[in-house]
Design brief:
Shape: flat
Order of helices and strands: HHHHHH
Radius of gyration: 22 Å
Distance between the termini: 40 Å
Number of domains: 2
Number of helices: 6
Structural class: mainly alpha
Largest sheet: none
Helix content: over 70%
């Protein structure tokens, strides 16, 4: 529970910060906004944990049928390198999380580079204006091309 609350708190902080920074929302009381977002995220995470537990219980109830009908190692050419099923799931989950985290960091560095480029223009363009949005997308595409992502 404490980890869920901490995670929800960090995510709420990031969400409110991003909304304010990008001027997508006007927030009068940031601490209240963070608390509302944290509560929503925490409730969603709890619901997700319950769904995971239910799915795990169903999988255990039907393990033989699942194993017989969907043997990935034989039919799909997938090899999971781990000594036991729980360890394999944990490793896969960790690896997926790392990829998502790396992609999020990459997106953040791209956003920073685009904003630096736009800020360097001799004629400043107001952020959030239609012109700024067009320039942002165009510059973002150029940055992505340079980084072989588009």
């Amino acid at each position: 529970m404490a980890r869920r609350e901490q995670f929800a708190g960090r995510m709420a902080e990031a969400v409110v910060k991003r909304l304010v920074l990008r001027k997508l929302a006007e927030v009068r009381d940031e601490s209240r906004a963070r608390e509302v977002v944290r509560r929503i995220l925490s409730e969603d995470l709890l619901a997700e944990e319950k769904l995971d537990a239910d799915a795990r219980a169903l999988m255990l109830d039907h393990a033989k049928e699942i194993r017989d009908s969907a043997d990935l190692t034989g039919s799909e050419g997938v090899v999971i390198r781990a000594t036991d099923e729980e360890k394999a799931r944990g490793q896969l989950r960790t690896e997926v999380f790392r990829v998502l985290e790396d992609e999020a960091k990459l997106e953040e560095t791209i956003d920073q580079e685009v904003r630096r480029t736009l800020a360097s223009y001799s004629r400043p363009v107001p952020e959030g204006s239609a012109e700024w949005e067009i320039l942002y997308q165009k510059t973002r595409e150029e940055v992505l091309k340079r980084r072989f992502r588009l």
